[in-house]
Write a structure and sequence with these properties.
mainly alpha, Growth Hormone, Chain: A, about 400 residues, single chain
Length: about 400
């Protein structure tokens, strides 16, 4: 291994640790936000809007920030985003109304647009050819491991201390990630020659058949996938009577299971047909969503959550590997920006529509919608990805 290759490998390791810490901080509040908003007087529609507001600002900025990342310092963009994350974490504890919480979530989305898509682009450009699945699996493992640790910690702090304690823990974790990134993550030019690629428009990237299929899958799938975090805790607490700590356990176990499978499934995606993995994974997750509303106990709800996790573990590394492969040709920042915008667009509409379904028809409609929309995303992806 050359000195440049060693530098790239070390940079990736540090980046993975930073992403793990940042995602742990973000995950801390996931089991708390719906009930926190409900305590502030939010309706089902408002809770949906709460989640959508985060995605609105993120969706609006991910593509342009991705384009900027292809021409500027990715490290500086990530650091700016983590600094904004830290400030936002503190603001959550001082929200006095559901409307104020929505405004904070909007700002949080701005910070998010500067972190994950750019970090994914940074990692994609370090990836050796033919190992995109494995390396994107590493990235997803760090992301899901952090996001899985967060709900467990958040649920414990919420039940045994206070809501404010969870928000302060989030601030501390993200702040630590910021410090690590500033000190230990190198600029790309220190280990790799940076190629200046022409600016790629949203339309140019989506003219690529593989990326168009991946974009549509991620968009449609996200319409229902967001319900895991936004409505599962409400279902568990208000209908099944499960404690806040146990909700955190269910969310965390599901995410940890997903995290553990990301790297081996990423390696598998480097060896076999990625389209087949995505189709099978999408169908498995959809079955889990539909089964979820029929659960009546902690073990049943946990099983449903694990089924959804297994489906995600099959599909996500293969999907991000496609984005990484094509991003090397079109610009990793631009490609990852567009790729993640698809998820954000789905998460804008999905939670609000699900909130309307909750108010009008009850919780069953929310999870059945997630399952059906998941099946539709698989069908759309398969049709669009076929060779013509």
């Amino acid at each position: 291994m050359t000195s440049l290759e060693k530098g790239a490998a070390n940079a990736l390791r540090v980046l993975l640790l930073c992403i793990f810490m940042a995602m742990t901080g973000l995950g801390v509040i996931s089991p708390i936000i719906p009930n926190y908003a409900s305590d502030l007087g939010a309706t089902g529609f408002m809770i949906g809007l709460l989640y959508s507001s985060f995605s609105i600002s993120r969706a609006a900025l991910q593509a342009p920030i991705g384009r900027l990342a292809d021409r500027a310092s990715k490290k500086k963009i990530i650091v700016t985003g983590l600094a904004a994350y830290t400030v936002t974490s503190i603001l959550y504890a001082y929200a006095t109304s559901a409307e104020m919480l929505v405004a904070i979530r909007l700002f949080h989305g701005v910070a998010s647009a500067m972190v994950m898509p750019v970090a994914m682009a940074y990692a994609a450009e370090l990836t050796p050819k033919g190992k995109e699945g494995r390396y994107m699996g590493y990235m997803s493992t760090a992301m899901f491991s952090g996001f899985g640790s967060g709900p467990l910690l958040g649920g414990f702090l919420y039940e045994h201390y206070s809501t404010a304690a969870a928000f302060h823990a989030m601030s501390a974790l993200v702040g630590f990630s910021l410090i690590l990134t500033l000190i230990l993550v190198p600029e790309e030019k220190s280990f790799r020659k940076i190629e200046r690629r022409p600016r790629r428009s949203f339309r140019e990237i989506l003219s690529n058949r593989k990326l168009r299929a991946a974009f549509v899958y991620r968009l449609v799938n996200a319409l229902g996938r967001g319900n895991i975090m936004s409505f599962l805790s409400l279902f568990a607490v208000q209908i099944l009577g499960i404690s806040g700590t146990m909700v955190g356990v269910i969310l965390s176990v599901g995410i940890f299971a997903n995290a553990l499978l990301q790297t081996p499934m990423g390696a598998l995606a480097d060896r076999i047909n990625k389209v087949k993995l995505i189709v099978v994974g999408g169908l498995v997750a959809s079955i889990g969503y539909i089964y979820m509303i029929h659960t009546r106990s902690v073990p049943e709800l946990l099983l449903a959550r694990l089924v959804v996790s297994a489906g995600g573990a099959l599909s996500i590394p293969a999907l991000t590997a496609i984005a990484a492969e094509e991003g090397k040709k079109l610009g990793a920042g631009s490609t990852m920006g567009v790729f993640n915008t698809a998820m954000s667009l789905g998460q804008i509409v999905g939670p609000v529509f699900s909130g309307i379904l909750l108010d009008a028809y009850g919780m069953g409609a929310v999870f059945n919608f997630s399952g059906v929309i998941g099946i539709l995303s698989v069908a759309a992806f398969y049709i669009l990805s076929r060779e013509r």
